[in-house]
Amino acid sequence: MNQQNLPLFEIFVRSKRGLDHRHVGSLHAEDPVQAMDYARDVYLRRSEGISVWVVRSSDITASQESDVESFLDPMDDKPYRHATHYKLPKEVDNM
Amino acid sequence: MTENTAPADPRLAAFEEKVANDQRIEPKDWMPDAFRKNVLRQMSQHAHSEVIGMQPEGNWITRAPTLYRKVVLLAKIQDEGGHGLYLYSAAETLGTSREEMVQALHDGKAKYASIFNYPSLTWADVGMIGWLVDGAAIVNQVSLQRTSYGPYSRAMIRICKEESFHQRQGYEATMRLAQGSAEQKAMAQDSLNRWWWPSLMMFGPHDSESAHSGQSMKWKLKRESNDVLRQRFVDQTVPQAELIGLKIPDPELKWNKERGSYDFGEIDWDEFMQVISGNGPCNRQRLQHHIRARQDGQWVRDAMHAYELKRQARDAA
Amino acid sequence: MDSQNKALLNYCISLGDDSLTLGHRLSEWCSNGPFLEEDLALTNVALDFIGRARMFYGYAAEIEGKGRSEDDLAYLRDCREYRNFLINELPNGDFAFTMSRQLMVDIFDMGFFEALMQSSDTRLSAIAAKAIKESRYHLRRSQDWIIRLGDGTTESHERTQRAFNELWGYTAELFEAPKEEQQLIDAGIAVDRVALKATWMSAMRAILKQATLELPAQDWAIGGGREGQHTEHLGFLLAELQFLQRAYPGQQW
Questions:
Q1: Complex ipTM > 0.95
Q2: Chain A CB within 8 Å of residue B68 CB
Q3: For residue A56, which phi and psi values (nearest 5 degrees)?
Q4: What is the pTM of this model?
């Protein structure tokens, strides 16, 4: 018996104007259009979104944890990129 | 040579530190193989439970006694299916597939919550399942929101948001019966008599008897013990029953002032073992139903795939 | 009650019955779908139809003004008082049969609700405005499915062709005008369903072509739903639907 798997799609939803799309989970469908329709039934039953992206899981490239040291850590040792690094007088601290 | 006897594995140390600090383990993180297997077992069985649970409730959709009850029940069961989907989705982050998990269910290698091996015999059972079974599930799931595996934790948070409607509609339906005609009240009491003990069994054996509990607690996959969760469920549910004039079928149930909790009778562990090893009233039926639906759908899935291949060939031409 | 109000009452009940019988049939797919995502989608469609039934019955009960509720209408009328089109009460059959029936109904509903949005009856036009949004989604689904199934495997093609052949004769009644409705059509309240046929046919032809399916022979037709002349299937459907209310009369649930 032919046990074909339906491809896996990851679903991203923007819940409100002005927000980013967030990953909410995955589902199986044959093609992106069908994945979009199912996303409505699975993740948007309570109207939790105004925009949906579907991406084939196989199209996502993810960083590996072992990469963190060389790939991501150097981003972490430059505190001057963060606003909290700068101490200002209280009167203007709402900048 | 196992990881335990080797010189301290920095990856294991990093993993254990994350767990100790209540940080989440994410799909691409290194994790001990046993952890991976444990969390996969837990998530896939949780997913199977949601899907199998659609059957006892689904039985009453066509017989729901009002249009309002009909739509509420349909929406609730849809949620259960959706929860199964969130959980399969979280489980697939560990490199397994839906197909593999379903096959394990059909082969009897993967289990699902024993409660769904009981039959829904009357309309009162629909409300009872919502009130008791979802009530018990909520106690468990609120605790699991802090589970150590990231995708599982996020799925639990999503599920908990939706779950309280389930319990409320079940209690409301039960309340309507308990405050209705003599026949309706008897229907509700009969239902409680049949579902009370199986609901307590949902929390599993005493922790001292549980094969997986110790390791699951150590890795913070499980945050509280079976007995603690079971006690919490009893304490919250007894007053709810009293409020609508239904009697819990336990002659040993008694408020214990010192503990600030209810004392209750011992579960029939023979019945529990029978049901989880496949000899409950509906085990065979539930599994056959799932297998049949999947088999009946094979030609549909084949057609989808064939069409997709044809479409790709056309696009390429 | 004057003749136009009586006609309007029957009109609303008919539309409620259409929605309820089909919604009930769709709900039978719960836990039986070909895979989990589709199970959820089918029950979503069922919810839409049952929701529609409640709106139509609610309006009907108001028009009647005798204090009947949506549940009185759904649960306490026997087959001969039900006015749905026969196509909606037929058992689901296999997935091909269900989606073929759904496609026929969805194309019809798009045309019907678009016209009903223009009704001089503001309540009906409001219900139509809501329904058409749902039907747009329903049609996208059923259309996609018929194309996939028609142009999928040999087995799916044969099952779908068989379904169309078995269903075809039940579509004629969708485009027939019962005498009682004429005064409502003249008053701008009801939809002239006869006028919907040409568009329905051309949409159906286009989809069948894309699905590599043959247009069935148009040499038979079974109708009578609006006059309470149903298939034998409705009796069983209502027996299940109405059981609790009939076994425990007059109770609150």
A1: yes
A2: no
A3: -60, 130
A4: 0.91
Q: In chain C, where are the structural domains located?
A: 3-247
How many CA atoms lie less than 13 Å away from C168 in the CB half-sphere?
Answer: 18
C-alpha to C-alpha distance for C241 and B64, rounded to whole angstroms = 7
**Residue pointed to by tokens 């919604």:** C23
Angle, CA B58 vertex, CA B53 and CA B62 arms, to 5°? 170
Is C133 an 8 Å CB contact of chain A? no
At position B10, the amino acid (one-letter code) is P
User: Which CATH code is given to the segment(s) A3-60?
Assistant: 3.10.20.520
φ, ψ of residue C225 in degrees (nearest 5): -55, -45
Q: Is A29 in Cβ contact with C37 (below 8 Å)? A: yes
Residue boundaries of the structural domains of chain A:
3-60
Nearest-angstrom CA–CA distance, B278 and B117: 9
Among chain B residues, CA nearest to C93: B296
Q: Which CATH number fits domain C3-247: 3.30.930.10, 1.10.1760.20, 3.30.465.10, 1.20.1260.10?
A: 1.20.1260.10
Per run of 10 residues, the mean pLDDT along chain A (length 95 residues) is 69 87 92 92 83 92 67 58 66 65
Residues C137 and C106: their CA atoms lie apart, in Å, by 9
Could you please report the per-residue DSSP string of B194-227? HHHHHHHHTT-S-GGG-TTHHHHHHTTSS-S-HH
